[in-house]
Design goal:
The protein has helices at 2-18, 25-39, 44-54, 64-79, 154-162, 183-190, 202-205, 271-279, 350-372, 389-392, 394-402, 404-410, 434-442, 453-464, 485-490, 516-522, 528-546, 555-569, 580-602, 610-621, 658-665, 669-699, and strands spanning 83-92, 96-105, 109-110, 134-135, 140-148, 171-175, 195-199, 227-228, 266-269, 301-313, 317-327, 332-342, 379-386, 411-417, 423-429, 495-502, 644-646, 654-656. The protein is built from 22 helices and 18 strands. It has three domains: 21-93 and 317-452 and 479-546, Aminopeptidase, CATH 3.40.630.10; 96-313, 3-Layer(bba) Sandwich (Glucose Oxidase, domain 1); 555-699, Transcription Elongation Factor S-II, Chain A (Up-down Bundle).
Length: 700
C-alpha cells in the first residue's frame, strides 16, 4: 500500500510538471519539446562576445558611441533573420560644461572631480568618457555653509530638526543609498537648501564592504556614481514632452516649464573628495546610524566647512536610437509580446546595461534559430534595445508615447531586463502573471546547482526569513528604475522585470570601472547567468506567444491587493479612511476570478477555434488597462496605474495602492477618500472584464 501511495504521489508530481497554463495536455507536450530545444541554443561565449564588442567605447545617450552600439545590435538582429527598425527620437540631454567644487573655509580644498584610471584595466582610461555629474541638475553658482544630512530622505530632516539644524540657505551633503538619488536634491530644495552634493560613503559602497577595485570589486576612493536626478516620480521621458513623443518638429515645453528638472544644483562626488569636506564639519555629533566609514567623527554642521559649487550644462537636444526587431505572429500578428533592455550606459557599462542587453541579443538569436527550424509563434514577438534609459527611461518612454494607441490595443505583456549578474533570479511584476512566472521558473534550472529556479528562489526567500519559514516565490511590485515604467504605469500593460543578482557586489555602479575587465573578473565571468537569463526569457516569450488561452490569473491579484489594503490599515490614523468599498470590490473580483478558473479548468477552450479565443484573449491582456485611471495619481497625472507606482520620496521603490497610501501617510484625508473611490472603480472595471472572459469561455 505504501508503494502504491508513493507511486501515486510521484505520478501527481510528474503530471503537475507537464501542466502549462494556457495549453491543453497535448499542446503542452509539444510546447515543452520546443522550449527544451530553445533552451539548448544560448551560448555563454556568444554573450561574452556581444558584451566585449559593445563595451569597447563609452556609449552614453546622445553620443556617437550610443548610435554605434545601436547599429551593431541592429546588424546582428538582421543577420539572425528578424525584421529590424531603428526609430530615432530626440530629447533634452544636458552634458556638463562647468563643474567646480571647492571648500573656501576653514581650509582650502578644490575637489578633483575625476576618477583615476586603473593600470590593469585599459578601459578605465580613454577618450569620450562623460564626466561625473548628475543629469538634470539645475545650473547654479552658490557658496554656503555645509550640512551633512545622512541619506537625505525626509526622516533625516526630522532628525535634523530635533538637533536644531536648519538647512535653509545651506549646501547639503548626502550619502548615496536608501532612496532614488533624485529624492535627495528634491527634499533638500523643499527644506530651503541652495545646493546638494551626493557622495558614496565607503561604509555602503567602498572599503568597508571589502577590497576595492582593482584588488576587489568595490568602489575605489576616486570612484563616483553618475546618474540622473530627474524627478521620475512626477513623470519620465524627455522633460520637455510629458505625455507625447519627442520627435523632430514636435512641440516642446520651455525648460522653465519642465517640472521634472531639479531646482538646485546637485553634483555627485567620490569619498576621496567628500572626506575633507566632512572632516571640517562641526556642530552636533551625527547620530550613530548616520556615521559612515571615513576615519573621523561624523558631525552634522552647519559649518565651519563652507563650499563653493558652480555647475553649468549645454542644455541641448540630442538624438536617441531605439532598435526594434520583430518575429511576426502566424495566428495573432496584432498581439505583441515585447522584451526590452536598454543599450546606453554612463560610460562603458559592462554590467549596466550590457549584461542584460547581451542576454537579450542571445535570446533573439535563439528564437531566430527556432524560426529557421520551422517554429512560427502565434503572436508577434518584438525585441527592443532602448536608448536614453540612464537619463530617465527616455527611449522607451518616447516609443510608448509615440505608439500609445497601438500599444494599448495590441501589447499582451512587456518583459524587461537590465543589469544581470550572479545570484538568485529576482522578478517583479503584475500580480496577474504570478502563476505564469511560477511555472516558468519551475521549468528552468539554476546554472550552478542544477535545481529549478523556483526551488532556488524559495530557498533564498527562506534564508531571508532566517531559514525558519518556508520561502514563497512572489512577484514584487514595480516602482521605477528601468524601462517597464511607461508600459505598466502609463499605458497599463502587464509587465515583468527580471534579472539575476545577490551574489554580485556591484561596487562600480555608474563609474568608469564598470568595464568588461571588472565584469569578467568579479561578476558573471563565465556568462552562465547570462545564458540562464536568456533561457528564462526564451521560455517566457515562447510560452506567452504560443498559449492558446493567455495565462493570466486573477486570484493571486486579489490576494496581493488585499495584502496592500491590510498594510494601509496599519498606518497611523488609517481608520479615518473607509476602505470598505475597495474590500467589497475585491470580494466580487474574487468570485469572478473563481468562476473564471472554473471555466479554465473545464477546458472547452482547448478545442475552440482561434477566432473565438481571440475575443477571450483580448479581454485578458486588456485586463491590466482596467487598473489605470485616465486622471492619473494626485499631483502626477502621467502615472495612471492604481496598483503601484514609484513613491514620491522613494523613486525606485514602489508604493502599493499609491493614491491611497501616500494620502494616508501625509494625512490628506479628503484625497485619501477620493483615491479609495478610484481604486474601487479600477477593481470594478477589472471584475467586469474577468466576468466577460468567464462568460465567453462558458459559451464556447
Amino acid at each position: 500500500m505504501k508503494l502504491v501511495s508513493l507511486f501515486l504521489v510521484s505520478l501527481a508530481a510528474a503530471s503537475a510538471q507537464t501542466d502549462i497554463r494556457g495549453f491543453s495536455a497535448e499542446q503542452a507536450k509539444a510546447e515543452r519539446g520546443r522550449e527544451d530545444q530553445a533552451r539548448r541554443l544560448p551560448e555563454p561565449k556568444r554573450i561574452r562576445s556581444y558584451m566585449e564588442r559593445m563595451a569597447q567605447e563609452p556609449h552614453h545617450a546622445g553620443s556617437q558611441g550610443s548610435k554605434t552600439v545601436a547599429e551593431y545590435a541592429a546588424g546582428l538582429l538582421r543577420e539572425w533573420g528578424l525584421d529590424v527598425q531603428v526609430e530615432e527620437f530626440e530629447a533634452l540631454l544636458p552634458y556638463p560644461t562647468v563643474r567646480v567644487l571647492e571648500m573656501v573655509g576653514p581650509v582650502k580644498y578644490r575637489a578633483k572631480l575625476r576618477e583615476a584610471a586603473v593600470g590593469e584595466d585599459k578601459d578605465s582610461s580613454g577618450k569620450n568618457q562623460l564626466p561625473t555629474y548628475n543629469a538634470y541638475s539645475a545650473t547654479g553658482d552658490v557658496t554656503a555653509p555645509l550640512v551633512y544630512v545622512n541619506y537625505g530622505v525626509p526622516e533625516d530632516y526630522e532628525e535634523l530638526k530635533k538637533l536644531g539644524i536648519d538647512v535653509k540657505g545651506k549646501i547639503v551633503i548626502a550619502r548615496y543609498g536608501k532612496s532614488w538619488r533624485g529624492t535627495k536634491p528634491k527634499v533638500a530644495y523643499e527644506h530651503g537648501a541652495v545646493g546638494c552634493l551626493i557622495y558614496s560613503d565607503p561604509r555602503d559602497d567602498g572599503y568597508f564592504q571589502g577590497d576595492v577595485y582593482p584588488k576587489g570589486p568595490f568602489r575605489p576612493p576616486a570612484g563616483a556614481q553618475r546618474g540622473s536626478v530627474m524627478d521620475m516620480p512626477v513623470y519620465v521621458g524627455d522633460p520637455l514632452s510629458p505625455g507625447w513623443a519627442s520627435e523632430k518638429g514636435a512641440k516642446k515645453l520651455a525648460i522653465s516649464e519642465a517640472t521634472s528638472i531639479m531646482k538646485i544644483p546637485v553634483l555627485p562626488i567620490s569619498y576621496q573628495d567628500a572626506e575633507p569636506l566632512l572632516a571640517n564639519l562641526g556642530g552636533p555629533v551625527a547620530p550613530e546610524s548616520w556615521r559612515g566609514a571615513l576615519p573621523f567623527t561624523y558631525h552634522v554642521g552647519s559649518g565651519p566647512a563652507s563650499v563653493h559649487l558652480k555647475l553649468d550644462f549645454d542644455w541641448t537636444t540630442k538624438p536617441l536610437f531605439d532598435v526594434i526587431a520583430t518575429i511576426p505572429g502566424s495566428v495573432y500578428p496584432d498581439e505583441w509580446v515585447i522584451y526590452g533592455n536598454h543599450h546606453d550606459a554612463w560610460v562603458r557599462g559592462a554590467q549596466d546595461p550590457l549584461s542584460g542587453a547581451a542576454a537579450l541579443l542571445e535570446t533573439a538569436r535563439a528564437l531566430g534559430e527556432m524560426r529557421k527550424k520551422g517554429w512560427m509563434p502565434k503572436r508577434s514577438i518584438r525585441f527592443a534595445l532602448w536608448d536614453g534609459e540612464e537619463f530617465g527611461l527616455i527611449g522607451s518612454t518616447e516609443w510608448v508615447e509615440k505608439h500609445q494607441d497601438e500599444i494599448k490595443a495590441k501589447t499582451v505583456v512587456y518583459f524587461n531586463s537590465d543589469s544581470n549578474g550572479k545570484g538568485t533570479l529576482g522578478v517583479g511584476g503584475s500580480p496577474s502573471l504570478q502563476t505564469f512566472m511560477t511555472e516558468v521558473v519551475r521549468d528552468v534550472n539554476d546554472p550552478v546547482t542544477g535545481e529549478s529556479l523556483l526551488q532556488s528562489a524559495r530557498q533564498s526567500a527562506s534564508a531571508k526569513r532566517g531559514g525558519n519559514a518556508a520561502g514563497e516565490f512572489a512577484l514584487g511590485p514595480l516602482g521605477a528604475g528601468s524601462d517597464y515604467v511607461a508600459f505598466v504605469h502609463h499605458s497599463g500593460v502587464a509587465s515583468m522585470n527580471l534579472g539575476f543578482s545577490g551574489a554580485d557586489p556591484g561596487g562600480v555602479y555608474h563609474s568608469i570601472y564598470d568595464s568588461f575587465h571588472w565584469f569578467t573578473k568579479f561578476s558573471d565571468g563565465e556568462f552562465i547567468y547570462g545564458k540562464a537569463l536568456a533561457q528564462v526569457m526564451a521560455t517566457s516569450i515562447m510560452r506567452m506567444a504560443d498559449a492558446s488561452l493567455l495565462p493570466f490569473e486573477f486570484g493571486t491579484l486579489v490576494k496581493t491587493v488585499r495584502g496592500y489594503v491590510d498594510e494601509i490599515k496599519g498606518e497611523k490614523d488609517a481608520s479615518k479612511v473607509d476602505l470598505s468599498e475597495v474590500n467589497a470590490e475585491l470580494d466580487k473580483l474574487q468570485t469572478a476570478a473563481e468562476d473564471f478558473e472554473q471555466e479554465v479548468k473545464a477546458g472547452k477552450w482547448a478545442s475552440a477555434p482561434a477566432t473565438q479565443l481571440a475575443k477571450v484573449n483580448a479581454l485578458l491582456y486588456q485586463s491590466e488597462r482596467s487598473l489605470t485611471q485616465e486622471k492619473g495619481l494626485p499631483g502626477r497625472e502621467w502615472y495612471r496605474y492604481q496598483i503601484s507606482a514609484p513613491g514620491m520620496y522613494t523613486g525606485y521603490g514602489a508604493k502599493t495602492l499609491p493614491g491611497i497610501r501616500e494620502a494616508v501617510e501625509l494625512a490628506r484625508w479628503d484625497e485619501a477618500r477620493r483615491e479609495t473611490a478610484s481604486v474601487a472603480d479600477a477593481l470594478h472595471s477589472l471584475r467586469r472584464r474577468v466576468e466577460d472572459a468567464a462568460r465567453l469561455l462558458k459559451e464556447l
